[in-house]
Amino acid sequence: xxxxxxxxxxxxxxxxMMAPLGGIxxxxxxxxxxxxxxxxxxxxxxxxxxxxxxxxxxLVPLYFxxxxxxxxxxxxxxxxxxxxxxxxxxxxxxxxxxxxxxAFSSSDYSMLSSEYGRIGGLANMATLIKAIRAERPDNTLxxxxxxxxQGSYTALQxxxxxxxxxxxALGVDVMTGHWEFTLGAERVKELVEKLxxxxxxxxxxxxxxxxxVFESTKFFERGGVNIAVIGQAFPxxxxxxxxxxxxxxxxxxxxxIVRGHVExxxxxxxxxxxxxxxxxxxxxxxxxxxxxxxxVILTGHTHDAIPAVINVNDTLLIATGSHGKFxxxxxxxxxxxxxxxxxxxxxPIFSDVITPDPEIAAVVDKIRxxxxxxxxxxxxxxxxLLYRRGNLNGTFDDLICQAMIEERDAEIxxxxxxxxxxxxxxxxxxxxxxxxxQTAISYPNCYRSEMTGELLKxxxxxxxxxLYNIDPYYQQxxxxxxxxxxxxxxxxxxxxxxxxxxxTHLKTGQLIEPSKTYVVSGWASVNEGTQGPPVYDVVMDYIxxxxxxxxxxxxxxxVAGS
Length: 562
Fold this sequence. Notes:
- By secondary structure, this protein is an alpha/beta fold.
- It has two domains: about 5-35 and about 45-60 and about 65-365, 4-Layer Sandwich (Purple Acid Phosphatase, chain A, domain 2), CATH 3.60.21.10; about 375-560, 5'-Nucleotidase, C-terminal domain (5'-nucleotidase,  domain 2, Alpha-Beta Complex), CATH 3.90.780.
- It has 19 helices and 24 strands.
- The strands form six sheets. A six-stranded mixed β-sheet has the order 5-6-8-9-11-10, with helices on one face. It has a five-stranded mixed β-sheet with strand order 3-2-1-12-13.
- Strand 12 (about 325-335) and strand 13 form a beta hairpin.
- It is globular.
- The relative contact order is 0.14.
């Protein structure tokens, strides 16, 4: 454990660790920032909750652009997290063109990325965590909301072992999961046994006997307060991901079960009840309105970075983004089993101004060094901004779709609306590492098949309902399936079956006919036995051939009213 003296030394250190990236260097930006400033915080109460979520196996600093579109429907339309760009900045009182604008929004991203550089990195995050723990040695609880063991080349190669090693070294106190389950039931159980901390998932049950598969609740004492942490895994894992990988486990929101866990925790003496959730923000917003007694929900899955607490029915909702970009700190004062005061800060991890923790840096190097030659192999260069996040499309997804069309000789391409994967600013090299941050899954086969126009519409309508159903309990998170070789119009506010129209085959300029058959390529099928080369090989082959990538703005998807 760091001493107070160590803490002061850590917070005093600053460094400019990147080479120039444009007209204004990261070093220049560093001169206007400090590690001490990032850590500045008015402590309150007895308990400090530290939280990150959806790191997706990203161990080193990166670029990651927040979404420019995040549509909400029904009562949540226009509410966080369904605010982006300038609307987001205005709502939270963040000035445009600033470091916080860069961290929290898509506004002026290409320009600001050259000024402020990369964000994240586990060793950089560790420095902040250790500094806070030194300040509050007996008060701090570190919670990981899951999507930790998947999303990189090394995680794929080690079947998640690299991230277990990293999180053990970081000193995580408790976690829940989602993409972890795509390693398969047996592997999940193996890795859970290797954790130095509990894996909680109270909504996962055995399908035969309906018995709990994992612990639901763990008690911790911090600052003299008895804390119950309840774990909630992603409820739709067997639908959004392959069922055959976890055939004997049932998931679901399980509102009554959650209520039972909360009541049991209170009966056992919990003075503070915290839920580590991978439901998604809108699901947790509804859950908080219906289940009493949860003091704090640390929410994950939808990758929302919200720099303020959202209070729903006296439950505090915290959303700490993704990819290791942010560390959330919530200080709580508890009296008579109630929160009477709190303070919150969502800290962007500006890697250029944070001295990496040497212990965790060594762990990261040990994981990545054996693969360095492959990871750093340059496949090509991008002239345009390559990003994933956006409700309807992302330029890296457009690149993946074009690769599938050309490499698999298809007319139309379908790519899942995943929210994970690095951003690459214009002028960046595209490396093997970059491609795997977009495609590293345990079911990567790139299929080629024939589909009717009717089936294509059904697929789009189904995904749209998962995303835009007016009832959050029927939303599975993620974004719209990405399409290549076709365009369409969407009205998110219409009912199921009528959101998609004007489906157009771009090659011919003709409307897609319901009865006509089209050659389609896609990946990440949840069906067992899907045939085809791994999508990462398809994409890398395409980039090698093209050498220079320039993805134009996608104007083929129209939103009603836009």
